[in-house]
Each structure stands twice: as C-alpha cells, then as structure tokens.
Amino acid sequence: MSFAEGGRGKGDRSGPPSRTMTYLWAFLVGGLICAAGQLLIDVAHIPPAHTMVVMVCAGAVLTGLGLYEPLLRFAGAGASVPLTNFGFVLTKGALSGLAKGGWVGMLSGILELSGTVLAAAVLFGFAAALVFRPRS
Amino acid sequence: MADAQQQQRWAQKEYAALAAQFHPRPPIWPNVCRAFLVGGGISLLGQGLITLFQALGLDITGAMTRTSLALLAVGALLTGLGVYDEVGRFGGAGAAIPITGFANSIVAPAMEYRTEGLVFGLSARLFSIAGPVITFGILGAVVAAALRWAIVGP
C-alpha cells in the first residue's frame, strides 16, 4: 500500500497534525461512514447486506478517483476499519498489479493485498463457527 | 348478513393496509446517531490498536494490517459469544460496516447452519454474505482500476 510511502516524516507539517487529532478524525470519519450506511438502510430501504456491498463498491470508486489514500492518511482507522477499506485494498492491488504486469498482473494483484484479510476471515470464521453454538 | 360480514372484512383489510403505512417507520435520527457512535467507537478502538502496533515498531501499513486482523478476531469471538448480536441491535450499520461486522457476517450464518454439516452447512455459509461482498468488491475494483488506468494512466 503505497499510501505509506509518502510517510509520516517527523517534521512533516503537511501530514496529519497530531496523534490526538488523528483519534478525533478516526472517530468522526468512521462514525460518518457508518451513519451514511444507516441512512442507506433506513431512508433508501437498502437491506444491511446490500449496504455492505455498496460500501465496498464505494471504497473502490473513491480509490479509483484517488480520494481514499488521502482519507487514510488523514483519518487513520476511521478509513481503514470500515468495509470501504476492503474496496480500497482490492482496487489498490489491482492498480499496482496493472502497473507491474498488465491485465494478468491486475488479476493476481487484486488478491495480493486483500489476501491477508480474506485468509484470516475464513480461518477465524471457520474456527469460531466450529467452537461456538448459536444461542437460540 | 353475509354482506355485512364481507363489508367488515373489507374494512379490516383497509385498516391493515393503512396501519402498515404508518407503523414500521424506523426512528431514523436516533438510528443514525447510534450507528455514528458505534462505528466511530470501533474506529477509535482501531486507532488505538494502530498506535499500539506502531509503538511496537511497525510501519503504518503493517500496523493497519495487524489492526484489521485483530478486529476480525474480536468480531468472530464476540459473535460466537453472542455479544455482537447485541452490538448490532444497538448500532445497526455502525456494527455492520466496520471490519468486525464483516467477521460477524461470516461467523453468524456458519454457526446457525453447522447442523447441515461441515461442507454445505458451515463452510458454504461462511460466504453467504461475505461472498457477495467479495464478488462485488472484485468487480468494483476491476472497473475502478481499469477506468483509472485508461483515464489517468499508471
């Protein structure tokens, strides 16, 4: 993920101002993305599972427009925790794959960055579903 | 006599339709506020974890990846314990959209259907919601990346 390449130099004034402000922005941006999702559910009557799909696609679109990396730098976990980040990671991988190896590179690049989260989600999910029993 | 009964039935139907129009309006603003608080809270927890991992000497990318992994584990665990259901009831989208909600969407259906067996029950149901998310994520990523490549270049 090259958004880190710009780095957070110690004396870099254009970067995120301070740790406290990053916490504030993380809360605000993370909260706003979820509030937008709730509006989709309650006002536009989009079911929750569809809203998750919409969020991932929104992340992909914002990444395509070049807006998600600045958001990540700015809001930290506020942008990296919501599902929009999954769209970012997929698109970012696709773009760096395109740059490296054309169309085939794009296909292998898509799951290169997102693979970590996907593999972990399957493993943790399998383990949890095996160990725990439903309440009802 | 039969006529009167018919009429009453009609009236009942009309009333039911009318009531349905007014009844199930969700309280929008309280819901949105709760989603904001829960989603913001989980992001705040994530920021805390990022700071922690950075303090352990990881760069921002590594810290964010490990934060995602930690939150996935927390979401899977809390779903198994039945706690995340409560978080979801309170927070709505604020519980569904963070990565902990992604873990919840994987574990919850798989837990319910484990009686159908390890293959078509548990393993297939892991993806009942995650599958569409991954499918549309990849579709969206290909379209967005191809368009950006075509318009902006590498």
Q: Got a strand count of chain A?
A: 0
**Mean pLDDT score of chain B:** 91
Could you tell me the radius of gyration of chain B in angstroms? Answer: 23 Å
Strand content of chain A: under 5%
**Largest Cβ-defined interface:** A-B, 79 and 84 residues
Share of helix of chain B, binned: over 70%
- Tally of helical segments of chain B: 8
Which segments of chain B are poorly predicted (pLDDT under 50) over 5 or more consecutive residues?
none
Intertermini distance of chain B: 80 Å
Shape type of chain A: globular
Structural class of chain B: mainly alpha
Order of helices and strands of chain A: HHHHH
Query: Quaternary status of these chains?
Result: heterodimer
Proportion in helices of chain A: over 70%
Number of helices of chain A: 5
> Mind telling me the C-alpha Rg of chain A?
17 Å
Instruction: Estimate what percentage of residues of chain B fall within beta strands.
Output: under 5%
| Biggest β-sheet strands, sense, barrel of chain A | none
Structural class of chain A: mainly alpha
Rounded average pLDDT of chain A: 88
Global outline of chain B: elongated
